[in-house]
Design brief:
Elements lengths: L12 H7 L6 E9 L5 E13 L8 H8 L9 E10 L13 H19 L3 H8 L8 E2 L5 E2 L4 H12 L1 H13 L3 E10 L16 E7 L5 E5 L8 H13 L6 E5 L16 H28 L6 E4 L2 E4 L6 E3 H10 L12 E6 L8 E10 L6 E11 L6 H21 L29 E5 L17 H17 L14 H9 L7
Amino acid sequence: MRLGKPVKWIESRRENFQTAIHGRDQIDDVEVAVKRDGTILGLRLHVIADLGAYYQLLTPLIPTLTGLMASGCYKIPAIRTEIVGVLTNKMATDAYRGAGRPEATYLVERAMDLVAAELKKDPVEVRRENFPKQKDFPYATPTGLIYDSANYEKSLDLVLKLSEYKKLRQEQSAARKKGRYLGIGLSTYVEICAMGPSSAMPAGGWESATVRIEPSGMVNIMTGSSPHGQGQETSFAQIGAEMLGLEPDDVNVVHGDTAIVPYGIGTFGSRATAVGGTAVYKSLIKLREKLATIAGFKLGEDPASLVFRDMKISSKAQPKKSIPFGEAVSMAYVAKTLPPNVDPGLEATTFFEPSNFTFPFGAHVCVVEVDRDTGDVRLLKYVAVDDCGNVINPLLVEGQVQGGIVQAFGQAMLEEAVYDEQGQLITGEFMDYAIPRAADMPWMETDRTVTPSPVNPMGVKGVGEAGTIGATPALANAVADALAPFGVRHVDMPFKRERIWRLMQKPSRRAK
């Protein structure tokens, strides 16, 4: 402003590390009451959450989500949570790909494995014992949530089949006899997505969308959601094309321009498609119904019997009886032969208020090998089965899952923000703060089950955080399993080489 000229400022990596939000920092104490057959009777959780020096947008809400999701995908009759937020001289924590849910899943999934070890049962058996059945949904948890829909058994069965779980256990036993320490980690998770009901959101939970079909036939979708890598430019175009019988190239998605698009709440908590996409869907329904009325008037057909396909609006009974999509659009704008009580133009706006959150779920299996001489943990195999409801674009879903798994690997194995005694950040460069590389990851095998959500008409649930939430405890359980011959029951993340090496070298922990 003083110079009256544009000024460009580029922050250094250290400035970014010091002043951009940090993801999570919790210490969790967990107590589990369990019957001898593996049935969980109760869970008591004490969370100490480092919030940093001050609040950002959702800082105090994050550990609250940990408490809300503490039951995981299990039928736990009684849960008590105590959450203590602590202000420190560190950078503030806030939402980061999961925000409170990875912590909840990690603690309950570690607890399930510890229960299995205590009772000398397979971790699969303990989980099956405590799943709610499909008939139990919608399922009310003791923490006050209502899970929309799920079939936990189905996703678990599929991941066990794809991973050849029984064979893996046999290979593990044989490897241990040869002095190789393989660990098999299982995680069955559920997460809360589609952050929506305004009654539960600080700034509202609805989303809006305006759809306008131009006289040229081009469809403009103006969404209040603002994707930043999630791919809604593609998926929203697909929704529009599917609804109107067009090609995705005929649909233009506009977002983030406050001079053009409707007001929106935000893109977080895997809500952009489940909430914002539903607003788009409902606007498209309005325009589709109007075009069907216009085309039905022209063709002498019941509008409800018409189908939109291949750039035409056709009679379902007599496909040759049709008019081009563009002709119906022209009729709406020229307005000379419109049906009675139909206004000119093709534009619709919808504000969608969801009735509940959605709850995606899944099951992950991974295999690691721990090197006794170096403490190195190598990921050998990863299989993930996720259920995010109905899928619009499989490639986008695949990308989100794989990206989340890699980020979980970073959290579990490498990443740690370290401060010295004076509160100075000493991991402010990539020389000191390690992140995953392609060479760290094996081929990830993914699949999915489909359990539509009743919360929105498209039946979608959200998948942006699934990989991060499901993978962290799977990796932790695998490392703990690999170290079991050394008498190790639990080790905190991150599983850095020196920490693992020291655990394996203690004289009192000779491998059995």
